[in-house]
Structures are given as C-alpha cells and as structure tokens.
C-alpha cells in the first residue's frame, strides 16, 4: 500500500510508503491518499512525510504511455486532493526530505507548514520530459521567487537545496535531514494541544488573503468576524480563564 496512516494522541501521520519508487504516486495512490485524508478529519493536527530517501518524486510515470495517457484526468484528481488537503479542518505539517518534485511539490504547497531537510531537492525536472511544471508550482515560484528565477528553474531543470528553498521564502524552516521528521512531529503535537478552532479560522483568513488578494481593511473586517465567532467557543473561554488564573490553558479543540 503506497499510503500508511499512523495515529498518536490527536495527531494523524500520513506516510507515503513506496520508497522503492521514491514515493512517486500513480492514480491509484492519489485516490488512496485522498481517502486517507478524509478518514483523518477529526484529528487536531496532521503530519505528512515520505518513507525512505524522498518525500515524493512526483507522478509515477514508469508505466505511462504518452500515446494513451490522460494527463487531465490524473491532474484533475490531484487538484481535488489538494483542495481537500488545503481545507483540512486542522493545522497540517509536512516533513520534506529528498526529492520534492511535481505532485510532491504540490502536496507541500497545499500544506500549512513545511519543514525542509537541508538535503531536500526542490524544483522543476519537467524539461527532461517535454512537459510543463504542474501542481501549482508556477504560482508558488512566481509569488516567492519572481518571474526570472521561476523561469530559470523551469528552463534549466536545476534543483534547489532545502536550505536554498527556505532562504528564498518557499517554505517554513530548514532542519538537518536526520532531525526533520522528529522536529515536525514535535511541532505538530504541540499545536494539536492548542485552540484548534482558532487555528482553522486563521488558516482561512490567510487563504483568503493569498487567493483573493484582499487588502488590509477587508482582512481586518474578516478578523473581527472570526474573533466574534471564536468568542462563543469553549477554548476561548478557557484561554481567558487561564490568563486570569495565571495558569497554562487546557484547550479541548472546540
């Protein structure tokens, strides 16, 4: 099975488990990952990682025949999966190791927080296939790197190291390769003990700024609406009670 699910308290960890193929994903694996994401809903944090040397080397093209291939069907399925991941009702984290290419890069783009191994490899290998970069990477590269650097990566097929990707603003933090999975689990576990409803509200606020390019005043109005809604939650009451009583809050995630 190319996708494995593990549970620890309020955290679900989804593992891409096809290391002999660098966790490359065929259509069946995409559907399996989508189903695993749906089953994981209810967790207070989600971790994604790859087994072995890579996070995900992209689409499994080892048996693709260009004469009969339907790239639209595969990519439409993948886009639906990314929507499910981006809208997951809890904070999501990824530990990016080794190759993070094609659909593997797309999974990282749709994840809330990405911790990158210093040895990770990120970029666009599509020139060697005569294909176009996909999975949302054009938007990411242009937004974070600018058009010149984006086209440089696309044309040359050169890959960025994890350290370079983080320094360029693509992802959250760079971590030594032998520590990144443990580091990601530690951060996810800490966040899973936090005010989940507030985190989900803030995820939506940030997505609206990113996707709809709303400005300062609309964002402030949205923040007010979110705060009013959160004021009716148990975690909001607990947070204020803990502050008054000078103790650590005990959030229930609701």
From TrEMBL:
Pfam families referenced in this protein's UniProt entry, alphabetically: ECH_1
Molecular function terms from GO: isomerase activity
SUPFAM superfamilies: ClpP/crotonase (SSF52096)
Keywords, comma-separated and alphabetical: Isomerase
Stated name of the protein: Enoyl-CoA hydratase/isomerase family protein
Entries under Gene3D superfamilies matching the protein: 2-enoyl-CoA Hydratase, Chain A, domain 1, Lyase 2-enoyl-coa Hydratase, Chain A, domain 2
Claim: Isomerase is one of the keywords in the record: yes
Family: Belongs to the enoyl-CoA hydratase/isomerase family.
Species annotation: Humibacter ginsenosidimutans
């Amino acid at each position: 099975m190319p996708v494995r699910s593990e549970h620890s308290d309020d955290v679900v960890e989804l593992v891409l488990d096809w290391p002999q193929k660098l966790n490359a994903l065929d259509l069946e694996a995409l559907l399996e990952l989508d189903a695993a994401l749906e089953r994981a809903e209810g967790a207070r944090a989600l971790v994604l990682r790859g087994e072995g040397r890579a996070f995900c080397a992209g689409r499994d093209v080892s048996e693709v025949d260009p004469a009969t291939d339907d790239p639209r069907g595969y990519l439409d399925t993948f886009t639906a999966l990314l929507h499910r991941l981006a809208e997951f009702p809890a904070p999501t984290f990824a530990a990016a190791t080794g190759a993070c290419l094609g659909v593997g890069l797309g999974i990282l783009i749709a994840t809330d927080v990405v911790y990158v191994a210093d040895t990770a490899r990120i970029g666009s290998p599509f020139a060697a296939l005569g294909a176009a970069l996909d999975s949302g990477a054009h938007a990411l590269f242009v937004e974070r790197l600018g058009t010149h650097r984006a086209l440089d990566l696309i044309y040359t097929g050169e890959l960025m190291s994890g350290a370079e990707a983080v320094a360029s603003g693509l992802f959250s933090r760079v971590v030594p390769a032998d520590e990144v999975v443990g580091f990601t689990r530690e951060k996810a576990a800490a966040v899973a003990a936090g005010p989940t409803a507030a985190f989900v509200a803030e995820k939506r606020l940030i997505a609206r700024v990113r996707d709809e390019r709303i400005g300062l005043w609309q964002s402030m109005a949205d923040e007010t609406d979110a705060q009013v809604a959160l004021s009716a939650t148990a975690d909001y009451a607990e947070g204020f009670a803990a502050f008054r009583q000078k103790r650590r809050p005990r959030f229930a995630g609701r």
